[in-house]
Design a protein that fits this description.
Layout: E1 3-4, H1 7-19, H2 25-43, E2 53-58, H3 62-76, E3 80-85, H4 94-104, E4 109-111, H5 119-126, E5 130-134, H6 148-154, H7 157-160, H8 162-165, E6 172-176, E7 206-210, H9 222-226, E8 229-232, H10 239-246, E9 254-256, H11 264-270, E10 283-287, H12 295-306, E11 311-316, H13 321-327, E12 332-335, H14 339-346, E13 351-356, H15 364-373, E14 384-387, H16 389-397, H17 399-403, E15 409-411, H18 415-421, H19 423-430, H20 441-452, E16 455-458, E17 462-466, E18 472-476, H21 491-504, H22 509-527, H23 535-547
Parallel strand pairs: 2-3, 2-5, 3-4, 5-6, 6-7, 7-8, 9-18, 10-11, 10-13, 11-12, 13-14, 14-15, 15-16
Antiparallel strand pairs: 1-9, 16-17, 17-18
Helix pairs in contact: 2-3, 3-4, 12-21, 12-23, 14-15, 16-18, 18-19, 19-20, 21-22, 22-23
Bound molecules: ligand NPW, adenosine-5'-diphosphate (ADP) and potassium ion.
Length: about 550
């Protein structure tokens, strides 16, 4: 499983490795710089040949130290290298200082904050083949200063100006650890309290980070800043060291969701044992709204059926029966007028999960359904629940119902629904990020899950899933898993159905949310551009075949 680290966790890992005598800080810096150069050559093999020109922007900390290593290695490779420094060499941390001194023995260091850059300087800057951003890494604690040359990179004027100097190929911008300006913990850009900052943050072409990706590489704007992420091994995975970190208080891990292929238990659950019958695979009950509004529930039902629930029933008001019957075949139908009717339905112990919210409505009938589903009407048995869309609106209005949430529930809010359910948490996320580590979507979702006492899946291209006990995963639709066409009406309804279907099949709420979100993105990628929500469930057979389910 890919663990995503916060900056504090990364520091703890580095400190533990150094304290154990396994490695020195200087050696780690050398490996980091070497890893960056190897990543550059792997990305652009043509740069291995001949001599090219690089501009390396170094900052005052160890990120700058990595930059000095890169400058030295490129120069040894035969490149022409110009180095700019932001900061006072006298105040550099020791390892960065050593690499600064090594570079000074080989070439010049210019002060990046000097105000005397000439037009010629800038022309040379633009015409470099490679610009390395080693200004700030995980130590960025406040908004990055607006430095003249860096600012040009930040504003993307760099590329816009190419016509001006008549150069065809844009310089390749490589960020060490992270594009400077981004907070490694949140993926947010640090800005002044009044929101001042560059108009358009710059994006590197390649970001090279060390040991493990950081949470911010996958959240919010992080992927847009990083563009392409390469993780370099710097030899920190020694067993002794892992032992020491297991008990570290900061080890409250955040992981990327993973393919069921990499998750033995998920694979076992997805595979159907021979000889079972439909009830072996669970019964999912999807509640629908009135006629004319049933499409969302039908999408969820189709999703639950395709993901492998043995039976799926849509429960709707009597007046919507004809409409639903005309549109559903394998999915069964049952009239459910109100909360009392749902109580009666749930007495059938074979219904493993209820999904409610898509197209449900927000009136008294629907509030009664939410109450019944939550067992808040005094029923014997509280079902497992997926609460989406209108059910979330009802929960945000009725504190008594919110208080009835329990550990077998999954809430699947998008940003607007999240803000209605957890206004104070959303507010914290909305204030400009001025200090690192900034409050992140991971922090917000963990806090929401702890408050709700159930799993919360906070949607987006960076979907975050958290359980009340602190477990947390990010389902990223970025980098090689980008699927922007997933942002289409109704796709969230299908996701609710996938999760309900998986819960019916015996997945825990957290695992169902993680695997459901993972499959959702895979289905979108399987179909490609042009996708509409109806296509998503139809892609599951191909995805399952590929996985060997
Ligand atoms: N951890 C590891 O395992 C490894 C880490 N490695 C590398 O080290 C990097 C982390 O280094 P780091 O901790 O020295 O922090 P870094 O990002 O260089 O910045 C700190 C400096 O910037 C300053 N500063 C901050 N914000 C500022 C602002 N807005 N405006 C102006 N100044 C600002 C801050 O000043 P201060 O806040 O102390 O006044 C301090 O001087 C990491 O990203 C990776 O590249 C690798 O070598 C391999 C192994
Ligand atoms: N840019 C994006 N890339 C990938 N997935 C996205 C993106 N934007 C939204 N999504 C996903 O699309 C789905 C949209 O759900 P939702 O907002 O509830 O819409 P609807 O109510 O129309 O179904 C969510 O699963 C969300 O994570
Ligand atoms: K950087």
């Amino acid at each position: 499983m890919t663990e995503l680290l916060t900056s504090a966790q990364m520091r703890a890992i580095e400190a533990a490795a150094i304290a154990s005598g396994q490695v020195t800080g200087l050696e780690l810096m050398e490996r980091a710089g070497r890893g960056v150069v190897e990543a550059i050559f792997a990305e652009w093999p043509e740069l291995r040949a001949g001599s090219f020109r690089a501009v390396v922007l170094c900052g005052p900390g160890n990120n700058g130290g990595d930059g000095f290593v890169v400058a030295r290695l490129l120069k040894e490779w035969g490149w022409e290298v110009e180095v700019f420094l932001y900061g006072d060499p006298e105040r550099m941390p020791p390892d960065a200082r050593v690499n600064y001194e090594r570079w000074v023995g080989m070439g010049e260091v210019r002060d990046i904050s000097a105000k005397d850059f000439s037009r010629d300087d800038f022309d040379r800057f633009w015409q470099a083949d490679l610009v390395v951003d080693a200004l700030f890494g995980i130590g960025l604690a406040r908004p990055a200063p607006l430095l003249e040359p860096h600012n040009y990179v930040l504003h993307r004027l760099f590329n816009d100006s190419l016509w001006w100097v008549g150069k065809q190929d844009p310089a390749k911008i490589v960020a060490i650890d992270q594009p400077s300006g981004m907070c490694a913990d949140s993926g947010r850009e640090l800005r002044d309290a009044n929101g001042e900052g560059p108009d358009e943050p710059y994006a590197a072409y390649l970001t090279v980070t060390f040991h493990r990706p950081k949470v911010g590489h996958f959240l919010e704007d992080g992927p847009r800043f990083c563009t392409k992420l390469k993780v370099v091994d710097i030899g920190l995975a020694g067993s002794k060291f892992e032992d020491c970190v297991t008990s570290h208080p900061l080890r409250n891990g955040t992981y990327l969701t993973r393919s069921p292929e990499a998750d033995f238990e998920a694979m076992q659950r997805l595979r159907r044992a021979e000889g079972g019958h439909k009830y072996t695979h669970g019964h999912a009950f999807i509640l629908s709204g009135p006629s004319g509004r049933g499409g969302a529930a039908r999408l969820a039902a189709r999703g639950a059926l395709r993901v492998g629930a043995g039976l799926v029933t849509v429960g709707c008001p009597a007046e919507a029966l004809v409409e639903n019957a005309a549109r559903l075949d394998a999915v069964m139908l049952r009239v459910v007028e109100d909360g009392a009717a749902l109580d009666a339905v749930l007495e059938d112990g074979r219904i493993g999960v209820v999904c409610l919210g898509p197209g449900l409505g927000t009136g008294a009938r629907e509030a009664g359904l939410v109450a019944a589903a939550l067992g808040a009407r005094g029923a014997e048995r509280a079902a497992s629940l997926v609460l989406d869309a209108d059910a979330l609106t009802i929960l945000s209005r009725e504190a008594g119902l919110f208080g009835a949430l329990h550990g077998r529930c999954v809430l699947t809010p998008h940003g607007g629904e999240f803000a209605r359910l957890f206004p104070d948490i959303a507010e914290k996320l909305a204030v400009p990020a001025t200090k690192g580590p900034a409050y992140s979507k991971v922090d917000a979702t963990r806090e929401a899950a702890a408050r709700a006492g159930c799993v919360v899946l906070f949607k987006g291209a960076d979907t975050v899933i958290a359980a009340p006990d602190g477990r947390c995963a990010v389902n990223s639709a970025h980098y090689e898993r980008a699927a922007p066409w997933l942002a289409t009406a109704g796709s969230g309804d299908v996701l609710a159905g996938f999760i309900a279907g998986l819960m019916a099949r015996g997945f825990s709420p957290f695992d169902a949310a993680c695997t459901g979100a993972w499959l959702h993105v895979e289905c979108a990628r399987e179909f490609g551009p042009g996708l509409i929500a109806e296509d998503l469930p139809e892609m599951l057979p191909a995805v399952f075949r590929r996985l060997g389910v």
